[in-house]
């Protein structure tokens, strides 16, 4: 009854993408082909699996049960195929990757280019966003995340620890002076992003000072606050990974160098599997090596 892997893959893609049209686009198939294959699968199992409407397709109870099992089946098939393909000597196929925007542009974007140049049968779909989304919901193979991990069902490979530090431009420091202690920040222009309303800094004796922060400039993007700091508009608390290059070339100055945030792990998250696909294994090793060797 469930003897057509192609139909199962199409069904799983519809479930992940949320609509037949989105799945058809993702698979590179005509919409009528996707619709016919779904109808054929429903005919074989004897139940409706997906309720269609003009904008979104929803799984029925039976559809959700099948989807849960199909994911495991397809994962096993993919693992088996990867074990034998080319004697596991060359990664191939599509790898879907997500990463935070600034971090991804600096480290993951160039790395993806290098990998596809080296491995001609490897394809990578890179999605850069600061919004945290589920791997299954977004049809992802691996996601790079900074901070604590909420989903304990995923495998988390720690790549390194990241710390946020206070930085400002030389122009701002020349105009406003440099704070000597965290309490001095209240007299400076601070640049905020996201949901930040408090900063917490750890000192040289591991003492922690937490204090409320306000700003005349607030953005929903860490990139924007970073650029404001480069423009000399204030002090920003930003990941040392994001500002390393600007610190090295003198565009930014490390303010309060003995103080920093608590450690936030940078991790690669992926679904558990008995055998990693070669493309995922190659990617993970390359990311780890790149981050460990960064300046």
Automatic annotation (TrEMBL):
<dbReference type="GO" id="GO:0043565">
    <property type="term" value="F:sequence-specific DNA binding"/>
</dbReference>
<dbReference type="GO" id="GO:0003700">
    <property type="term" value="F:DNA-binding transcription factor activity"/>
</dbReference>
<dbReference type="InterPro" id="IPR058163">
    <property type="entry name" value="LysR-type_TF_proteobact-type"/>
</dbReference>
<dbReference type="InterPro" id="IPR036388">
    <property type="entry name" value="WH-like_DNA-bd_sf"/>
</dbReference>
<keyword id="KW-0238">DNA-binding</keyword>
<dbReference type="InterPro" id="IPR005119">
    <property type="entry name" value="LysR_subst-bd"/>
</dbReference>
<comment type="similarity">
    <text>Belongs to the LysR transcriptional regulatory family.</text>
</comment>
<dbReference type="Pfam" id="PF00126">
    <property type="entry name" value="HTH_1"/>
</dbReference>
<protein>
    <submittedName>
        <fullName>LysR family transcriptional regulator</fullName>
    </submittedName>
</protein>
<dbReference type="InterPro" id="IPR000847">
    <property type="entry name" value="LysR_HTH_N"/>
</dbReference>
<dbReference type="InterPro" id="IPR036390">
    <property type="entry name" value="WH_DNA-bd_sf"/>
</dbReference>
<keyword id="KW-0804">Transcription</keyword>
<keyword id="KW-0805">Transcription regulation</keyword>
<dbReference type="Pfam" id="PF03466">
    <property type="entry name" value="LysR_substrate"/>
</dbReference>
<dbReference type="GO" id="GO:0006351">
    <property type="term" value="P:DNA-templated transcription"/>
</dbReference>
<feature type="domain" description="HTH lysR-type">
    <location>
        <begin position="3"/>
        <end position="60"/>
    </location>
</feature>
């Amino acid at each position: 009854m469930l003897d057509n892997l192609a139909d199962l893959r199409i069904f799983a893609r519809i479930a992940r993408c949320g609509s037949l049209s989105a799945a058809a686009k993702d698979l590179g198939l005509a919409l009528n082909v996707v619709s016919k294959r779904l109808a054929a699968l429903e005919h074989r199992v004897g139940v409706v699996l997906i309720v269609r409407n003009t904008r979104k397709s929803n799984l029925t109870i039976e559809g959700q049960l099948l989807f849960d099992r199909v994911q495991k089946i397809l994962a096993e098939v993919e693992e088996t195929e990867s074990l034998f393909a080319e004697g596991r000597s060359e990664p191939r196929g599509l790898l879907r990757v997500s990463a935070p925007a600034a971090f991804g542009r600096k480290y993951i974007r160039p790395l993806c280019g290098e990998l596809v140049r080296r491995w001609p049968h490897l394809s990578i779909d890179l999605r850069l966003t600061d919004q945290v989304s589920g791997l299954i919901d977004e049809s992802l193979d691996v996601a790079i995340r900074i901070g604590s991990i909420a989903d304990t069902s995923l495998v988390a490979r720690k790549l390194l620890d990241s710390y946020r530090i206070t930085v400002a431009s030389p122009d701002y420091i020349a105009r406003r002076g440099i704070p000597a202690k965290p309490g001095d920040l209240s007299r400076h222009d601070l640049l905020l992003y996201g949901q930040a309303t408090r900063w917490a800094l750890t000192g040289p004796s591991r003492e922690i000072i937490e204090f409320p922060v306000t700003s005349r400039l607030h953005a929903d993007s860490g990139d924007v606050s970073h650029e404001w700091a480069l423009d000399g508009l204030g002090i920003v608390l930003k990941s040392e990974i994001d500002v390393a290059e600007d610190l090295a070339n003198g565009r930014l100055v490390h303010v309060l160098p003995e103080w920093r945030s608590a450690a936030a792990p940078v991790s690669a998250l992926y679904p558990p599997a008995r055998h990693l696909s070669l493309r995922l294994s190659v990617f993970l090793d390359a990311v780890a090596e790149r981050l460990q060797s960064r300046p």
